[in-house]
Amino acid sequence: MLRTLDVVLVVAMVAAATITYQIKHAAEEKLAEVRELQAEIKLQEETIDLLEADWSLLNQPSRLQKLSTAFEAELGLKPIAPEQMAERDELPGRASDFEPQIAEGVADAELTTGSVQP
After folding, report:
1. What is the spatial distance between Cα 35 and Cα 41, in angstroms, rounded to a whole number?
2. Distance between CA 110 and CA 105 in Å, rounded?
3. Cα 117 to the chain's mean position, in Å?
4. N or C: which end of the chain has fewer CB within 10 A?
5. 43: CB partners within 8 A, 6+ apart
């Protein structure tokens, strides 16, 4: 009887060791995946920072002024006259005959809802 118990315990120990190894291996794979994603995120953040710096450089008012002066003939740009600016009071208001697109709470026999029970 002692030998049978020994064999069962050895088999249980080998099974436990195998399961432990599989769990450890899966955890190491997930850790490698997390590290890879973290590296990719860091690269994307650095790329975003670089693109924001480029955008800031390209949108400097002095640079834009030089470009607009250099390409004034091709672009047909002209300075804005004060009469072209509108005040808030000069803007047209909202249409007063606007009819809201909401239900009035009246039962409609042709209205189909999600319920199909009679």
Report:
1. 10
2. 14
3. 40
4. C
5. none
* The token pair that represents 33 in the structure block: 């995946």
Handedness of CA 75, 78, 80, 81 (dihedral sign): negative
Chunked mean pLDDT (size 10), the chain, 118 residues: 87 97 97 97 97 96 91 84 83 69 59 59
Paired tokens of 45: 């953040």
**pTM for the complete prediction?**
0.50
The maximal CA–CA distance of the chain, rounded, in angstroms, is 107
Write the DSSP symbol of residue 84: G
Tell me the C-alpha to C-alpha distance, in Å, between residue 65 and each of 60, 61, 62, 79, 90. Answer: 9, 6, 5, 12, 30
